[in-house]
Fold this protein.
Amino acid sequence: MAEHTFLRGPKDWWRQAVVYQIYPRSYADQNGDGIGDLKGITSRVPYLKELGVDAVWLSPFYPSELADGGYDVADYRNIDPRIGTLEEFDVMLETLHANGIRVFVDVVPNHSSDQHEWFQAALKAAPGSPERDRYIFRDGKGENGEIRPSELVSHFGPTAWTRITEPDGTPGQWYMHLFAKEQPDFNWDNQEVRDDFIKTMRFWSDRGVDGYRIDVAHALVKDLKNGHLPERQSYDVSVMKDDGTDDLFDRDEVHEIYASWRQVYNEYDPPRVAVAEAWVHANRRAAYASEKGLGQSFSFDLLGTPWNSKKFHDTIDYNLKASSKTGSSTTWVFSNHDVIRHATRFGLSDEINKNLPKWFRSADRESQINFKQGLERARAATMLILALPGSTYLYQGEELGLHEPLNIPSDQMQDPQWFRSEGSISRDGCRVPMPWTSTGSSFGFGPGGAHLPQPDWFKDVNVEKQDGVKGSTLEMYRDALRIRKDLVCEEKLTWVKHWLNSNVLHFKRPNGWQSITNFGTKPIKLPKGQVQISSQPLVDGKIAPNTTVWLQS
Ligand code: GLC
Ligand code: CA
């Protein structure tokens, strides 16, 4: 086994880190089977180093039936043989660490795969057995238990209950799954479940993993006392209670679990860190971000913020104030493996952005995208968040300015959300394998094909095409991350008011680093200071529309 490597350094390294999300199946395929693998990631470490990211976050690489792209985990302390081995994981980690890049792994504690040995044991055991108690099994209603135990929808639609066949062949109990039926929810009132996740945290922390991204962190504890079962028709945050007593999500008790994980994290040097994926009311994020808990929580507020300087200002201001109260640092995100790529979102009108599933299902969806505007705004928006206090989470491919591939025929789609819900979009587009080269099978993703079809236009938008090309999105990201390293300073900002132009968003960091974004349609005057970088070329010395410029005064 390769030596476990620990990357030491200041314990607050994460506060203003740039974290790059890798979707392992779609990053780089070393053996040509069409599925990205750990050796592929290792081979791209020079690329990551040149890009200048501080850390990578790997979406799940655990053994999985891929009912939900790997978020259905069959074994939390192993690697899917199609993706690699634990030894290859160690080599990857060592290589990343040797290049100063830290590693987050994704932990999925709300549910396992139905192939997990515990769920398989539960199916074989009797109702009421300790094996069944690790999940949420209930008898159905009706004379023969044929009616589902409660009216609870699944996030992917339609119902969150599936009936099993008992070992003797008779129709049996039902189990709860907030996501696909292949993702049974754990019962977090069960001590064995709690102990097992502590074991998982130690397992990866001992191997040198620096941080964790916690999947649906707000869902673990449900109110199941005295025969109660939650009922819900929508997962919209607006229908969730915001006082810790909702019977399904964001219950106060969930923080006992995170406090116990925090104790484990603090046994390490530097302490391991974690970021919660918690879709909760904004005022409730603090508890996840607390230093007694996971330490940081995603803010997804910018995902829904239209291209408007005031709206951006208000979202940013709110998040900075909220994080200053928790003592954590805030997070900024525009893209990840669950959403339409932001270059495409910014190319759609505000109206369309309010109802993306409707757009996604329309026949002429491509003609509704303003590709040029989308890319310009995406570049400007990314430069804007990179200048803010806090940490930025980037998603593979956004550094190429990738638009959402929309060419996937429905019979090649893999996303359970697409199959289970008619009112939804498929998340497969943003998971299409990375284009590294202009030619070759799968555009350099690997020597074989790609597990999702890549669009033809990848021949024009890929790493090879942009590498070393001035003005390319890749070079803009590289420059911005390099310049940012020198400029990052105390986590504060001051807004600079532009009374005569409400389309400008301008702020200053304590060391004189300034960021100005032109949200309007006319060029604006460049304020005093030395230009460090601009997301689009200046026009007659002025800042073009849809552009962010960094200045140093
Ligand atoms: C999170 C993941 C998403 C997954 C779901 C269920 O939201 O980001 O990809 O489908 O959890 O695990
Ligand atoms: Ca492979």
Notes: The pocket of alpha-D-glucopyranose (ligand 1) is lined by residues 68, 71, 108, 179, 215-216, 277, 337-338 (CB under 6 Å). The chain has a mean pLDDT of 96.
